[in-house]
Amino acid sequence: MNKAIISGFERVSFPIARKLYNVGITIRVVPCKYRPENHWIVFDLNIADGKKYDPEPTDDELRFAVRISHFEQFNCNSEVGRYASYWIQKL
User: Fold this and answer.
1) Do the beta carbons of residue 24 and residue 45 sit within 8 Å?
2) Hey, where are the domains in the chain?
3) How many Cα atoms are found within 13 Å in the side-chain-facing hemisphere of 32?
């Protein structure tokens, strides 16, 4: 993973993103070829939103992995990037 800070967002790895998600910090998920300030394909994940929309609560780590899997399945391709990158708002 390349270290990057763009427009106030810092790129983090999947394990760090999962830990921060479990703590309650919002994670911005975008395809790997896109920038985090892009307004077309941006997905902000927060554990509170996951609990609100999930009818059967499961383990938080599993919920994060499933939500990322769904994002990659529907939003990632050869044009925008085949995998997700994870960004946090730098304070």
Assistant:
1) no
2) 5-89
3) 14
Q: Which residue has the higher pLDDT, 48 or 7?
A: 7
**pLDDT tens digit string along 39-88?**
888 888 888 776 666 666 566 656 788 889 989 999 999 999 999 999 99
Q: Locate tokens 């499961």: which residue?
A: 58
What is 14-77 written as a DSSP string? HHHHHHHHHHT--EEEEETTS-TT-SSS-EEE-HHHHHHH-SS---HHHHHHHHHHHHHHHH-B
Q: Are 21 and 27 in contact (CB under 8 A)?
A: yes
Q: Indicate the angle between helix axes 60-75 and 14-23, nearest 10 degrees.
A: 120
Residue 29 CB coordination number (10 Å): 21
Q: How many residues does the chain have?
A: 91
Residue 20 backbone dihedrals phi, psi, to 5 degrees: -65, -35
Global pTM? 0.85
